[in-house]
Amino acid sequence: MLSLKKTIEGLNREEQRFQALRACYLAALNAVQEHAIEVAAEATGELRRRVQRLYRELSEGSDPGAFENSRGVLVEVLKDYRLRSDEALAQKDEDLHAIITTLATAAETLSEHNDSHSATLKEFAAQFQHVARGRDLGRMRTELTRRVGALRSAAESMWHESQSSISEMQLQLRDFQKRLEQAEDRATIDALTGVLNRGEGELRLRKAIDAGSLVCVILVDLDGFKRVNDRWGHTAGDQVLKTFALTLSQDARASDAVSRWGGDEFLLMMNGNEEAAQQRAAKLRVKLRIRHGVVVLGRVVEVEVGASIGVAQARAGESVEDLLTRADVQLYEDKGVAHRAAPRTMTLEGGA
Fold it and tell me: What is the largest CA-CA distance in the chain?
């Protein structure tokens, strides 16, 4: 009896230790999503979403094996966040370098032929350098647009003094304006799929909710996409994502907004109530269960993927995060209930 008692006490101590470690691990996951550095809105949003999903799955159970398996998932999430953050910082540095170089060349050209305006040009140069030290690319873009407008006005006032120099300046300013518009596109469009990126999609959704519009979200997650990546590589996966985004875009109405929400997740924002959104989602499930012919090492491989879908209607005063959480819960119910055949692949005839 004494031995049995000691065994039970030992098991109780182990259970208490496990529960304490479980609580600590969940608290750490919560801290990761709450205090993630806002390097790039899209990357940070996806990090929070994936960690929140992991937190929710672990908090609903107490299987030690689930916690052990979550380690690899968390490492993959953090690696992906670091990679995307590094890419965002590199793109920002590249944009800034091109912009400042163009402005410096323009200012230098003018200063060589307009000594009487050197003080004005120096002032503009100082302003541009101040903008370049910023960290918020959206605010920097706004400030640059405003200051370029002022610089253009100053250039026009110099026209009669040095027409040839100003002509060159205007050509350079037009080139700069084009670069600025391209930077604007990169800030709102997902480079791979051509639909809106998460940052722009979230901004439009927040504006619609704040305006009190009757709006719904349809959250779409690809089924079988990971198998495609694991077996055929990311190049094949990218082809699937492009085709999937194209199918969603072709189905979208003029008032809709389609955005890539995460790695293999897309969000369709539409006007209307939840009943209309559910009808739309039912049709999309059929359209999005399609076969894709992807090229892998000169062969055409047929890949079949499907989609799980979650729908939610925005409520008055609700945050974007709460709205998406409701859609995400429904998406996972759909993923668990819906019966889908596993993605199949077959090699078709292609080049050698």
Answer: 106
Q: Which domains does the chain have, with CATH numbers?
A: 2-88 (no CATH), 92-188 (no CATH), 198-348 (3.30.70.270)
Instruction: Tell me the DSSP string of 224-249.
Output: SHHHHHHHH-HHHHHHHHHHHHHHHH
- pTM value is 0.53
Residue 49, pLDDT above cutoff 90: no
Burial environment of residue 49 by CB neighbours within 10 A (0 to 12, 13 to 18, 19 or more): buried
CB 335 within 8 A of CB 265: no
Per DSSP, what are the bridge partners of residue 296?
A: 299
Chain centre to alpha carbon of residue 202:
9
Mean pLDDT value across residues 309-314: 95
pLDDT band at 139 (very low <50, low <70, confident <90, very high): low
To the nearest whole percent, how much of the chain has pLDDT over 70? 71
